[in-house]
Amino acid sequence: MALIPSTISRENKKNMANTVKTTQNFVPVREIRDGVIILKDGAMRSVILASSLNFALKSADEQSAILLQFQNFLNSLDFSVQIFIQSKKLDIRPYIALLEERYKEQVSELMKIQVREYIEFVKTFVESANIMSKSFFVVIPYDPPIIGSKKNPFANILPNRKGSQGNPTADAQFDEYRSQLEQRVAVVTQGLVRCGIRAAELGTEEVVELFYKIFNPGETEKPIQIT
Q: In this protein, which residues make up the domain named TraC-like (predicted)?
């Protein structure tokens, strides 16, 4: 009987070794190019960062006008969009670190006392209340037409990761599809602006940072080193 656990353990280790997959296997993103997300099936996505709107402080007439305008905006779209809201606990540590530096710079004892009391107030307030920061994104899709039996329209034109460089056909095809996507981005941006919402399309670095924060939420919780 003593041999059974070790036998099972070896079999489990073998099965685990066969089923281990990297995170990339579960992320349907092939590459991010010029701010455009290209999925593994050839579909394309652009991401717009939208500002918030303090709806509760608006008058009843203003609220009705905003709702009507937003309804008209959604009804005018002939393609689907995805609204993504990212909520995370507000990290107050950089602000506290700044206040600590200001505290060291004070010469007057009275100012030091006031700054110290304010620091303690902020810490106590944040600890007692669950303060969240929210970011609002709109994901705009474009699915390139499928030619023949090809499931991925980019299969033969996009360079692979190890990469061939300078593929004129791939660049021309990508620019054509991106122009179609950019038209949709312009429609959504204009519709949001009419609702009183500021909007800006994310570039490559911003999109990469967004994905990194989504898949690595613990990175934002690392302690800040104060020198």
A: 34-212
User: Taking the model in full, what pTM does it have?
Assistant: 0.67
DSSP letter (8 states) at residue 97:
H
Residue 60 — φ and ψ, nearest 5°? -60, -40
Residue 62 falls within a domain, yes or no? yes
- Domain residues for 109? 91-130
Virtual torsion, Cα 48, 49, 55, 57, nearest 10 deg: -150
Q: How confident is the model at residue 11 (pLDDT cuts 50, 70, 90)?
A: low
Other C-beta atoms within 10 Å of 6: how many? 9
Residue with tokens 């006031």: 114
Residues 6 or more apart whose CB falls under 8 angstroms from that of 49 comprise 135, 136, 137, 199, 200, 201, 202, 206
Sign for the pseudo-dihedral over CA of 157, 158, 164, 166: positive
pLDDT (tens digit, 9 = 90+) per residue, 81-109? Answer: 999 988 877 778 888 889 899 888 888 88
Q: Are residue 190 and residue 107 in the same domain, yes or no? A: no
Are residues 187 and 96 part of one domain?
Answer: no
Q: Considering the domain boundaries, does residue 171 fall inside one?
A: yes
Question: 88 CB contacts (<8 Å, ≥6 apart)?
Answer: 132, 133, 217, 220
Query: Could you tell me the two tokens for 38?
Result: 């290209």
Does residue 204 contact residue 33 with C-beta atoms inside 8 Å?
Answer: yes
In a domain, 209, yes or no: yes
